[in-house]
Amino acid sequence: MNTVAALPPKNYEVLPKTSETGEPLGELLEISMGPHHPSTHGVFRMDVVLDGEKVVRLKPVFGYLHRNHEKIGENISYLASMPYTDRLDYFCSMTNNWAYALTVEKLAGLAVPERAEYIRVIMAELTRLQNHTCLIGFVVQDMGALGTPMMYAFREREKILDLFESVSGARMMCNYMRFGGVRVDVTDEWLAQAKQLVDGYSKFLDEFEMFLTENEILLARTQHVGVLPKDLAISAAITGPMLRASGVNYDLRKVDKYGIYSRFDFKVPLGEHGDIYDRYMVRVLEMRESVKILQQALRDIPAGPVMDPKTKLRGFRPKAGEVYGRVEGPKGELGFYLISDGSPNPYRYRVRPPSFINLTILEDMCLGHRISDAVVILGSVDIVLGEVDR
Amino acid sequence: METLEQIKARLEAALPQAKIEILANECAAGERSLLVDAASAFAVAKFLRDDAQLCLDYCSNVTGIDWPDKELTEKIKVKQVVDGVEKEVEEVKKSLRPGFLEAVYHLYSMELKHGPVVLRMRTVNRTDQTHLPSLTPLWRGAEFQEREVYDLYGVIFDGHPDLRRILMWDGFKGFPMRKDYVAPDDFEYEPTPHDEVLEQAKKHYSTEVKA
Q1: Is B209 exposed, middle or buried (CB count within 10 Å of its CB: 0-12, 13-18, 19+)?
Q2: Which residue of B has its CA nearest to A62?
């Protein structure tokens, strides 16, 4: 006797499509894209309703990586949260460290030595370089250029990660900064290596751009796709390269001038159309500006201590109060909101995750485009699920 | 940017029914905040967004805070007659501050590049009256963040277009960011339970263990 094997559960649904007067016009297909889909950049799911290939509804679903980072932060000391911030956006642990250190410094009124400020800028800009490089690799892969562009991107990223490893001991989870400075000093050899890498980076960017910027497929897939209008971008609290691609001049390195960014000469690249191509171009130009900042920082870095001797890391009890600190991370405004009640643990520890908030308008950008474009649009938002889900 | 006192004065002139209070902040950075009553919060927020001098078009950060019931102790000196002699005696007076949930909004201006103005609203209590007006119609950026506050704290935002759980799954019960939330003991499997975990596990599996 034959037994029929149970069918796997359906991950799609067919919905009736009707005209405004109620006549049947065919069928809409509701599919669940993800969470294990190679182009969703992690465990991310989209509930998509399709009319043929056209997207008519899209709801992002996430939380698969949720571990209640904020609750963990409330239950451990201020210092102990530092390595946890690495795991938020695991591509950019250095900027995460900086955002958290900056907020605690603001809360307790701590000073940072000159050399440490320079080291922080160097680390943050190196992080920006590798994040943007890899992102472009990912987006081009989403368009179907399997492997090669990402290999080139990862080759450059490896060099930067080698630098991170030699100074902090870890490639991705650097846990390098502390409130009041940085954990260890960099050596002169390290600075020389960094200088060599930075000087060679423009050449790599030229090469990267030669293959991509005027590439016919890239132009066809990205121009006028996923347009984000300026007023919607502001209202939806979009930050980072996505906001600037829509033509809003808002870069926290210029607006807040945190750290020592006021000393460097750099420009803020802006887009005009707010489509994927502008987002790509803004990132490329931003990398060229980062190279400029790095060259200035590596030239001017002074000698001296890297840690304020007055800072007490263990048994640290800031006065009661609350503070919101933010930095321009590679993905957007990364903020921390802390409330202290005078005890060794924060009363409230909140992360303002840029890629989580940048997902708000994903549906608006995808409507009317084809499902294959939705993949590229999602890629151009630049999300990391460790930060979206926290 | 104007000081909070000036903003408060202009708000009170424009919206006479609103109850606005400036909350102090004693830490080094000392950003003070505006506490607004829930009934007029939407009007206040709209004023802050549309006013030409403030133009707070960017709602950066939305978050919740849980303040459970707290016993406040106050020492008062009371005059008492002890054995015919009047003496000053210290008496400890205890009072209960009822708990509430709070929503905090950090507002900036992208147009004029200033900020932040910190706006706060409070619910009546933590159990049955946890409604606050949603500011998503004013700033789209609050959409996911208000959903998160609802998900983790249980604040119900009236007027939100799509108030569902966002990080936890749909069937989840409870609000994990509240201070009195207790995680179920069977969330993590412990291969060799001991001490507290063993006690908990025994309690949890007591009905199943039958030799």
Answers
A1: exposed
A2: B167
